[in-house]
Amino acid sequence: MAPLFDSTIVSVALHTLSHDLHASVETIQWVSTGYLLAMGVTVPLIGWLQNRVGGRRLWMASLVVFLVGSVLCSLAWDVTSLIVFRVVQGIGAGAMMPLLTTLLMQAAGGRSVGKLMSIVSLPTALGPILGPIIGGLILGAGSWPWLFWVNVPFAVVGLVLAWRFIPADGPTGRARLDAVGLVLLSPAVVGVLFGLSNASRTDGFARPDVWAPLAAGLVLLVAFVLWATRRREAALVDLALLRHRPLAAAATLMFLMGAALYGGMLLLPLSFQELRGADALGAGLLLIPQGVGSLLSRSLAGRLTDRIGARTVAIVGFAIVLLATIPFAFADGSTNPWWIGLVLVVRGLGLGAVMIPIMAVGFVGLARPEMPHASTITRLSQQLGGAFGTAVLAVVLAGAAAGGDPAAAFQQAFWWAIGITAFATAMAALLPGRQSAAAPAAPAQAEPARTTAS
């Protein structure tokens, strides 16, 4: 899906954008940060918006916003206009990603969720892997505006397909917007994401622009939890659904998976560049084996999730990621590249296997009206986890690099990544087993399921 690839495609172009638009590195970072924060603001609203305007209308409107934002970005005349237009893009992208999951899960009605998620989560898995490669190829063949023009045909085709194949639906209710919840949650997400995004700079978490927004965001998040607990289903996001064990376990593991996936995607290309002298495109090409491994395991992981349950598939997947990350804690610039490629294939197999059961199991046993809330919860968990993992590993890497040995610094950072993955492997035991994972979703008119999975 274009929004997921767009964020990683642009990430490799920041140096080029800084040069061509005559902007400092600190300023040009807002091209990515603005997009990320706009997504964070939008995601909490999706459940309410779908309820008010209908799924198909909201999907097409979001795609139009993303399309308009892409065209405007390609026409940007300076760094300020580009940042503003990236925010427009981010609003559309933030709506599309959780909405896609909700629409498909509602259509599936709880049947073959593993197989379905193997398709839905494909862009999520491949975006961080193929995005830098695509971005490098575009920059090598043309100028930076083409990074955004490439979205146009995909968005147009997406609109045509949505009009033809997404069932027409209308508003499902007239619930009032939880304005207090919106004022609490959206700034909370923005504060946490903004603080964590600055942690990779000098002084890490000691920087005022890290701890101040992070602390403010966490305070607002706690306030939202207290507010939403009282409001229950009337809240902007129904946190009472977290009493449903599969969703609570899935949200926790989505956070940890985001940390492991995006944290690893910070370290791997950087290590290729720093220790092996690869450029941005070369580092992206070296990650192709991991993408291949992820593709190879997805279909099997989906079938196994439906057959034997989420718990076993997730534990095995995380264990594979864990074992395939350990070699990087001993690697340096002289490590055989063929060995690294083989390890990356295995790591990709684990990443592809992990994502399917976690994304699928969170919706098991939920009624149709509850699915938008579940989609918002899991999406925010993954987004916050990715920001957290990237920030922590960046700070660890920067601190270790002060010792003057780049190879040792990366090895230490990879040990932290291994620790996060080991914790996720243990937490995967909380996921439900075969019986609960195969249970059908509750019908729309039924009372919300609150059973405890085995």
From TrEMBL:
| Cited CDD domains | MFS_LmrB_MDR_like
SUPFAM superfamilies listed in its UniProt record = MFS general substrate transporter (SSF103473)
TM region positions: 27-46, 58-77, 83-104, 116-140, 146-165, 177-198, 210-227, 247-268, 280-301, 313-331, 337-364, 384-402, 414-431
Domain (Major facilitator superfamily (MFS) profile): give its ranges.
Answer: 1-436
Q: Which InterPro entries match?
A: EmrB-like, MFS, MFS_dom, MFS_trans_sf
* Localization terms from the record: Cell membrane
Q: Give the signal sequence positions.
A: none
Q: Which UniProt keywords apply?
A: Cell membrane, Membrane, Transmembrane, Transmembrane helix, Transport
Q: Main subcellular localization, coarse class?
A: membrane
Q: How does it sit in the membrane?
A: Multi-pass membrane protein
Query: What is the name of the protein in this document?
Result: Multidrug efflux MFS transporter
Q: Which organism is it from?
A: Curtobacterium pusillum
